[in-house]
């Protein structure tokens, strides 16, 4: 993630980048709405993104989009901080195959 976050914005024809870093706020909100996230969830993600906490925004997105499958520890959801796109994928697959 650090390399992606600190690199130049993707240009035309590029297929990489971090939506929490490279999308405008409007683009990010539209993308999250298209994923059927609620306003409160969108607000929590965009707030982190606005503050430059891209990895935390990504982790929050993971928590929200996987909340039905995540184990809970008390009042919180147990999830590792997402620090690489492959980690997001691997954790998603692990949750689905665990069922």
From TrEMBL:
Cofactors demanded by this protein: [4Fe-4S] cluster
Keywords assigned: 4Fe-4S, DNA replication, Hydrolase, Iron, Iron-sulfur, Metal-binding, Primosome
Domain DNA primase large subunit C-terminal stretches: 1-89
This protein's record includes keyword Ribosomal protein: no
EC number(s) on file: 3.1.3.41
GO CC list: alpha DNA polymerase:primase complex
UniProt cross-references to InterPro entries, sorted A to Z: DNA_primase_C (IPR058560), DNA_primase_lsu_euk/arc (IPR007238)
Superkingdom of this protein's organism: Eukaryota
A Pfam family of this chain: DNA_primase_lrg
GO terms for biological process, alphabetical: DNA replication initiation; DNA replication, synthesis of primer
MF-aspect GO terms: 4 iron, 4 sulfur cluster binding; hydrolase activity; metal ion binding
Stated name of the protein: DNA primase subunit pri2
């Amino acid at each position: 993630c650090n390399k992606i976050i600190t690199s130049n914005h993707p240009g035309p024809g590029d297929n990489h980048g971090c939506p929490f870093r490279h999308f405008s706020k409007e683009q990010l909100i539209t993308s999250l709405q298209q994923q059927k996230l609620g306003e409160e969830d969108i607000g929590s993600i965009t707030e982190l993104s606005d503050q430059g906490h891209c990895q935390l925004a990504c982790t929050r997105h993971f928590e929200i989009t996987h909340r039905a499958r995540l184990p809970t520890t008390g009042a919180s959801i147990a999830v590792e901080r997402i620090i690489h796109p492959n980690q997001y994928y691997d954790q998603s697959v692990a949750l689905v195959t665990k069922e």
